[in-house]
Specification:
125 residues, mainly beta, PH-domain like, 3-stranded antiparallel beta sheet, globular
Length: 125
C-alpha cells in the first residue's frame, strides 16, 4: 500500500497508519474501508469519504502491468481541512483486485459525480 496526494502519484503522504509502503490488508465494511499495514494502526475510510475506485499502473516507486494496482480515491480529513488523496493497493491473489473494486463501488452511492476525481485507468464510478 502507498498513499499520495490526489493527482500526484509521486507525493507520498504520512497519514497515520499509511505513512510507509508495505504489505497490508484492505477490508470493506458496510460503512467504509479499513486499510491495515502490520505494525501500524488501522486507517478507516468512512463511506462518505470515498470518491471512486479503479486501477493504475504506477505510484511512487512501483510500476506494474496495466491495471496492476487498485487505486482508491478518497478524502482525508486532515488538521488543515479535507484533502483529496489516493491509496494504491497491489492485489496478490488472482481476482482479488476485481472483487475489491466491486466491493468498494458498492459503497459509493449511484449518481455521485466523479468530475472532481482524477481519471482512472480502469473501472470507476
Amino acid at each position: 500500500m502507498a498513499t499520495t496526494t490526489a493527482g500526484d502519484p509521486l507525493d507520498r503522504l504520512t497519514i497515520p497508519g499509511l505513512a510507509f509502503r508495505g504489505r497490508g490488508v484492505a477490508t470493506v465494511f458496510a460503512d467504509g474501508v479499513g486499510l491495515t499495514i502490520p505494525g501500524e494502526p488501522e486507517t478507516f475510510i468512512p463511506r462518505a469519504s470515498i470518491r471512486s475506485v479503479g486501477t493504475s499502473t504506477w505510484a511512487i516507486d512501483r510500476v506494474v502491468e496495466t491495471g496492476g494496482l487498485v487505486r482508491l480515491d478518497w478524502t482525508y480529513e486532515s488538521q488543515t481541512g479535507p484533502a483529496p488523496v489516493e491509496s494504491y493497493l497491489r492485489a496478490i491473489e488472482l481476482g482479488d483486485a476485481a472483487r475489491l473494486i466491486d466491493a468498494v463501488n458498492s459503497l459509493i452511492p449511484a449518481g455521485i459525480a466523479a468530475r472532481d476525481t482524477p481519471k482512472q485507468e480502469g473501472p470507476s464510478t
